[in-house]
Amino acid sequence: MTPRIAVLGAALAAAAAGCASPAAAPAPGPEAGVGPGRTFKARHAFALTPPADAKAVKCWFALPASDPAQDVADFTVASPHGYSVVGDDQGNWFLFVEAKGPGLKPFEVVEEFTVTRRELRTAPDPAKTRPLTDEERTAMAAYLAPSAQIPVDDKWKALAREITGGDANPVSASRKLYDWTLKNVEYWVKYPDRLKASPVGSAEYCLENKTGNCTDFHSLWTALARSAGIPTRMVYGSFFKKDLDGKPDDQSYHCWIEFWAPDLGWVVHDVAVADIFVGDFALDDKNGPKVRLTTAAGYEKGDPAMVEYYFGNIDDRRVVWHRGRDLKVAGASQPVNCLPKAWVEVDGKPVKEKEGWTRALSFTEKK
Asked: In this structure, are residues 196 and 188 in contact, taking their beta carbons and an 8 Å threshold?
């Protein structure tokens, strides 16, 4: 019989599994506000096909996070193999499934849950914050440091100073970085015949090629922000795309930014989606489907109000999986770049998506 569990959230599942609790990720600041919200019934499925000679398969799957802007309920797991919930070094939780033995057969793991997601508004007023103190910079050191795809060095610091003019106010400086990114980088889906994204979410790639996907955009922005002394972290989730409601099409993943400002806390923004709404560009058979599905609710034309909105606000058609990059996930053989879908290892070696596993996230909105 397929084992199933029902839990109130990932933390309760972890407690039941006897896992040590990692430090909780800090919540957005005191001015964060949420709207009435939308409720979605989601199905998150992973199909794995082990190689014929595989002896051990380890899989880590994304879980809906405990988050100020979302409530998760009716969470269940179906798996033909044993599973537990494990943490990482940055306060995130993941579903862990392990299969051992000769002659491993293809199998599927399915998470189902209901999530109520609320709009998040963080009111980023530069008059209500100030430059960071030395003590604050020390406390936020993890969010100012370089990582594998996010450099913080003399080149990036010089570029950040050029863009911000040395502005030490984290909100006004962040807005300058936001506007510069929108002016200088194009989302690849606008012109897919000549632009493409990097495979890893690279700040260097995005700076050199002036294009990329959401992870490239936000790696670039994070590198600039950290180089300017603004604590920044990336958030990984998925849209519940209006056009795919009730359809089996996969929702893929999306990422966005939170930067920290004294007296405000964590401030959200999404410069990648904002770029879709900068000006008008022609839609055709090549870019039209991609552009419409790059946003939460579709695209018809440029909209300055949406560009303004996404600096400090986040819509209610998304789910958070985790925060941070280069995740040291319990039991994994190496740090994981990001984990909005899955990380799979066969006999200790990583396996890429579509080379041994696939993921499908679908949903229906509850009226």
From this structure: yes
φ/ψ of 78, rounded to 5, equals -120, 125
Give me the residue label for tokens 């992870």: 215
- The candidate with the shortest Cα–Cα distance to 221, out of 168, 149, 165, 299, is 149
CA distances to 82, 172, 264, 326 from 29, rounded to whole Å, are 39, 17, 5, 25
CATH number listed for the domain at residues 123-315:
3.10.620.30
CB 329, CB 339: distance < 8 Å: yes
Answering whether pTM is above 0.90, one says yes
Please give the full DSSP string across 208-245, using - where no structure is assigned. Answer: HHSEE-HHHHHHHHHHHHHHTT--EEEEEEEE--GGGT
**pLDDT number for residue 6:** 40
Q: What is the tens place of the pLDDT at every residue in 145-172?
A: 999 999 999 999 999 999 999 999 999 9
Distances (CA, A) of 242 to 125, 135, 156: 31, 44, 38
Q: What CATH number should be reported for the domain whose range is 4-119+329-366?
A: 2.60.40.2250
Question: What is the greatest pairwise CA distance in the chain?
Answer: 64
Between the alpha carbon of residue 134 and those of residues 30, 52, 140, 222, the distances in Å are 22, 56, 10, 20
Same fold flag, 4-119+329-366 and 123-315: no
Sheet holding 254-261, edge to edge: 265-269, 254-261, 232-239, 318-323
